[in-house]
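Our consortium's second objective concerns turning raw sequence data into structural hypotheses that experimental partners can test. To show how far this objective has progressed, the report includes one record in full. It was chosen at random from the queue rather than selected for favorable results. The single chain below, 779 residues long, was entered without modification.
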Amino acid sequence: MIRAGNKLYITLICAGLVLVTFVAFEQVRNNQFVNYDDGTYVTENRHVKAGINRDSIIWAFANIHPSGNWHPLTSLSHMLDCQLFGLDPAWHHMTSLLIHIASTLLLFYVLQKMTGAIWRSAFVAAAFALHPLHVESVAWVAERKDVLSGLFWMLTILAYIRYTKCPGIGRYLLIVLFFSLGLMAKPMLVTLPFVLILLDYWPLNRFQGADQNGTETAGQSESVSGVYSGSSVRCLFTEKIPLFALAAVSSAITFIVQKKAGSVWGTEILPLYLRIANALVSYIKYIGKMIFPTRLAVLYPYSRNGFTAWQLIICILILAVVSAFVIYMARKKRYLIVGWLWYLGTLVPVIGLIQVGAQSMADRYTYLPSIGIFTMVVWGAAELSAKGRYGQIVSATLAGLSLAALLLCTRAQVQYWQNSQTLCQHAIEVTEDNFVMHINLGLALYSQGLVSEAESHYLQALQIKPGAPKAHNNLAVLLIGQGALQEAIRHCRQALMSRPDFAEAHNNLGNALAKNNNLDEAIRHFQQALKITPDHIGAHNNLGSALATKGDHDEAVERYRTVLRLDPDSPIALYNLGRVLVLQGKRADAIDCYQESLRLKSDQHESHRDLGMILFGLGKLDQAIFHFECSIKIKEDQPFVLNKLGESYFLYGEIKKALRCWNKVLELEPELISAINNLAWVKATQKATDIGDPNEAVQLALRACELTKYNRADVLDTLAVAYAAAGRFDEAVATAQKAVEIITSGGNQEQIQEIRDRLELYRKGKPYQQHSDDRNSSK
C-alpha cells in the first residue's frame, strides 16, 4: 500500500512531469505540417480529411494505408483531429504532445507500481519525456503512430500488472484489448509479449524460486507490486501464447502489406550482409545518441561507402562485452539484463534486417527501446550512489543537470521541425548524401515559388542517386511550369525507367504530353496511372481534360464525376465539370458546378471568371460584374476578364467604369483587339465631353484595323463610326461599305443590316450615336 506521504510525492512528480514535458515541446504549437509523409497521413489524404464517418472507418480497417502500413487506429486518430480541428497544424501537434505526456505519466506509474522506487521511476519517466531523440515521434504529425502505440504499450503493461495480482479472464482480456489496439496503432509493438516476460523476471519476480534480490528462496516471496512469485517459466510463456499469436498475425499482415506497397527492399538492392552490419552498428549508434543527442536528423541515409571493418569490429565487441556483463550480473542485478534485452529486443522489428524505406536508422525507433537503457542507467547509478557518503546528493545533482540539458536540447531540436524547409535543411547539414532530403527541400522551395533553388536541390539529389525517380518526377513538374516540355518529358521517362509503377510520373508525363499536343499518348499515360492507382484523383482529372480537348465530352464528364465520387469536395473537379457542361450547352448545370466549387474554395479566379461569362451571356449583368470583379481581385493580370468586365459595365450603364477597365487592359495587353475596339466604339458614340473623343476614336480604330489587317467587319464598322463622329463622312461610307462586303460572305444578316442602317446615316452626313436604351448593339 502506498503511504500518504508517497501519494503526495507521486502527485507532485506527476505535475512536474507534465510541466517539464510541456515546456520542452510547447513550440510544436507554432510548427507547420511538413512535406515528408504528413501529406500521405493527413493533409492530402481525403479519407482522413473527411473526419470520422462510416466510409472513413471502413477505409481505415479495410485498406492498406498509402504509406504501406495497416494501422487503422492511427488513421482514426488523425480523422478525429480533422473532425475537431480541420487542418490546423497546431492542434494536430498538441494532440501528439498530450498523448506523449499521458505515456510519460503511465510509464512513471507502472515503474513505481512494480518497483516501489518512486524517484528512480520518476527519472526514467523524465528521461523518456524529455530526450531529444523523441522529438521526431512527438513533433512529426505523421509519427502519431509512435506516441499512440506507446500509450497502448503502457496501458497493456498496466493491465498486465493488475492481472498478475489477481489472474482472471476479464483482466486478461483487457491485456489483449490494449495490446490489439497498440498493434493497430503501430505493429512495432509485436515485441511486447517478450517484454512482459522480462518484467516477470524483474521487477515482478514471477519466475519460480527467485526473490527480488536475485537469491534463491525455499518458498514464495511477494514483490513490491503485490505479485506473488513462483510461476514456472513454462507457465509464464504459456499464458502469453495468445499475445504471441497476435504479434505473429500482426507481423505477417505488416510484411504482406509493405511488400505489396513496394516498401520492402529486396536483397538485390541491399544485401543481407550490409543489413546485418548496419544493424550491429546502429545498436551502438543509438546508444551514442542517447548519451550525446547531437546531429539528429529526420532521415539517416545509408552511406555510399558503407562501414569500415574497424567500426564493425568495435561495435561487435561493445555488444558482446555488455551482453556478457549483464548475463554475468543477471541474478544479482536483474535490471541490467532486463533493460539490455528490452533495448535489444524491441529494436529488432526496425533494426533493418527487413529493410523498409531508405533510412539506415531513425530517431523514432528509439521511442520505446530507450526505456530499457534508461532503466539500466538509473537503477545502476542509484545503487552506486548509495555506497558513498555524498552519493545521493551528487547523483541527484547530476540527474537534475542531465534533465535540464535534455530539456534545452529538446527545445532546440523542436525548432528544426518548424516547417519543411527548416527540417530538410538541417537534415542535409548533419548527414551526408541525403538525396531524399534534397528532394523534399526542393519541393518545399518550389511551393514557395523559389524555382531555381528547387531545381538546384533536385539536381543535387540526382548527383547523389542518378536514378532517383522522385527527383526526376519533381524536376519534370518544375520544367512543365517553365514550358520546357521536351526536358520534362525526358525526366518523366527516366523516372519511369527506374520505377515503372510510379503512378505520379505517368500522370506528369501525360500532362507534359498533353501540353505538347500529343493527346493520344497523354491519354495512355493517364490510363496507366489509373491502372496502378485506381483512385488517383489527379489522373482522373487530367484524363477528363484530355478527353474534353479531343471532343469526347461525355467521357470527360464521366471522369469528373468519378473524381467527385472519390472526393465530393474537390473544387477542381467541379470546375472542370462545369467547363465541359458549358460545351454541352448545359449552362444551368454548369452554374451549379461553379457555385459549388466556389463554396468549397472561394479564391478560384477561374471559377469566378467562367461563371461570370455564363451570367454575362444570360444577361445577368449585376451577377456577372460581381464574379468578374472577384476574379480580378484574386488575380489582377487578366486582360481578357478585365475586358469582359468593361463590357459588362458598359451594358449596365457604368460607362466610366468600363473605360477604366479597358484602359487598364491596354496597359496589360496593348494589342488586345477587342479592348481597343470597345474603347474606340465608346469614344465615337458617346456625346458626353468627358467620355466622347472622335479623333482618339479614329486613332484607336485605325490601330485595331492594322492589327487585324483590315479584315474584320466589326473593327471596320467601328472605324466607320469613328470617321463619321469626326465628320469624315466620305471615309466613313467607304469603310462601312468594305465592312458590308466582308460580312456578306459570312452571312450574318442582322449585323449586315445594322451596318447598312449606319451607312445611310453617313450618306446623309449624320454620325451614329448610341443611346442609353440601345447599348446591346455595342461591340
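The partners drew two points from this record. Confidence is low (pLDDT under 50) at residues 210-229, 772-778. The first strand starts at residue 300 and ends at 301. Both points have been shared with the crystallography group to help prioritize constructs.
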